[in-house]
Amino acid sequence: MSDVVVQLTELRKSFGANEVLRGINLEVTRGEVVCIIGPSGSGKSTLLRCVNMLETPTSGTVAVGGIELTDPDCDLDAARTSLGMVFQQFNLFPHMTAMENVTVALRKVLKRSRSEAELIAGEQLARVGLSEKALSYPAQLSGGQQQRVAIARALAMGPSVMLFDEATSALDPELVGDVLAVMRSLAEEGMTMLVVTHEMGFARNVADRVIFMDEGVIMEQGKPADVLGNPSVDRTKKFLASVLGTH
Amino acid sequence: MSLSKRQRANLLRYFVYAATLIALALLIFIVDWSKLSNAMFKWRIIKEQFPDILTKAARNTLIFTFFGFIGGLGLGLILALMRLSKVRPYRWFAATYIEVLRGIPLLVTLLILGFGVPIATGWTWPNMYVQGAAPLALVAAAYIAETIRAGIEAVPRGQMEAARSLGMSYSRAMITVIIPQAFRIILPPLTNEFVLLIKDTSLISVLGVTEGTRDLAQFGRDGVGKFANATPLVVAGLVYLILTLPLTQLVAYMERKAKRVRR
Predict the structure, then answer these.
(1) In a domain, B37, yes or no
(2) In whole angstroms, what is the distance from residue A223 CA to residue A226 CA?
(3) Which residue of A has its CA nearest to B172?
(4) What predicted TM-score, i.e. pTM, was given to this entire model?
(5) With 50 as the cut, is the pLDDT of residue B158 above it?
(6) A7, A101, A118, A158: which is deepest, by most CB within 10 A?
(7) CA distances from A135 to A99, A128, A140, B159 (A)
(8) ipTM
(9) pLDDT at position A246, please?
C-alpha cells in the first residue's frame, strides 16, 4: 500500500463563470505537514474545502485514504469522519458547552455512549490545554480558546488528516501563539496536516512542504527553506515580499 | 424675530404639552363618568362574571390556543423545512400553502373549514375543540413556517459546515445544531405569534360554540346580552391582558437570561 493519504487529480472548481481552481494535482503522504500559502482569491481555501467536499469540485477527483469522495456513490458523511476540519471562524456550536461541542459528533455520528464520548473529549480538551473550560460556553471563551476547542472537536473523531483553513486569521495577535503551539505539537505527533495559512513562521518551521498557489494553480512547491527562502517563481517572490514586508 | 432651530423645537414641544393638557381637561369635563362606569364598570356585574370567566371561558380560550399553537408549530416546522428543501415540488407546495393561508382572513378560513367542508363532504368534526383549533393551527402554521425559516436562515452558514464536516448528515445537523439555534433566535417572534393566537381564538365563536366551549370573547358577548351592559366585555378584555402580559414579560426575561449565558 502506498502511503498517500490525500490525492487530488486534475481538480477544477468554478463558481459560475469564475474558475477558482484550474487543475490541481496534489498528493499528501502519511504524517506530512503541507502548508498552502498564496494571495487572497488564489483558491487555497476552496482547495481545502474541496478535500472534504464542502465544495463539490466541478471536475477531477478527490481521494482520501483510498476512498474516492468524488464518486457519486461515496458515503460522504462516513468519509468526513476521517477528515478533521478547523475553520477560520471556529464555528463552535454556541448552544453547547465546550464538552458538548466535542462529544456531540462522537455520540450522534459515531454512536459512542455518553461516558465513552466524555472520556475521549476529556483527553482531547486536555491535549489542547482546556480541561478546566469543559463546562464553558463558546461565548465565555476567548477566540484562541474557542479555536483550540474546535481543534479538540475535530481530533476527537480520530481523523487521519486534519485540515486547517486559516485557523489563526480571525484571532487577536496575542492569541495566535497558543493555537499555533497546538498545531505544532500535532505535527510533531505525526498527524497528517493540510494547512492554509498566512503564518509564514509556522510554514517555515513546521511544514514538510510549502505550496504557493495563485490564480487557481500550484505555482511552486517544495521544502519550506526553498519556497520561502529562495523562490524560483516571480509571483512567489512578489507575494513573499508583500507578506514579509521585506525587499 | 427669527428663532434658532433649538428654540423652534422647544416651542413645538411646549405646544404639544399644552394641547395634551387641554385635551385631557376637556375629556374629564365632557365625559359623563357616572354613566360610563355604570355601563362599563358595574361592580355587581363584574362579580357575577367570576368564577366562570376563568374556570370556563379562559380555560377554553387557552385550550384553543394551546392546540392551535402546538399544531401550528409542528406543521410550521415541516413547512419551513420544505421551503428550504432542495426538492422543488416541496418548495412549491410550502410556498403555495403559506401564501394562500396568509392571504385569506382567518375568519373566512374558519368558516370554510368549519362549515364549508362538512357541507361539501358530509364529514363532521369530532368536537368543537377540534373544529375550532384545527383551522387555527393550519393558519398559524403558515405564519410560524415563515418565522422558523427566517430563524434557520439566520444561523450562520458555518454552523452547518462545521456539523457536516464532523460527519453529520443534513437532517442530523438540522436537528442537533441548526434548529435549536434557530428557535433561540425566533423565541420573541414565536411568542408574539402565541399572543396573536390567544386573541385570534375570539373568532372561533362564529362557528357557533356551545355553552361549554365558549371562549372569552363569546362569554363577554353573552354577558352583554344577559345584562344589557358593556361591563362583561371590559372584564373579558382584562382577562385577555392577564393572559398575554405575563407571556411577553416571560419572554423578555428568557431573552435576558439567554443573553447572559451566551454572551
Answers:
(1) no
(2) 5
(3) A108
(4) 0.85
(5) yes
(6) A101
(7) 6, 15, 10, 20
(8) 0.93
(9) 56
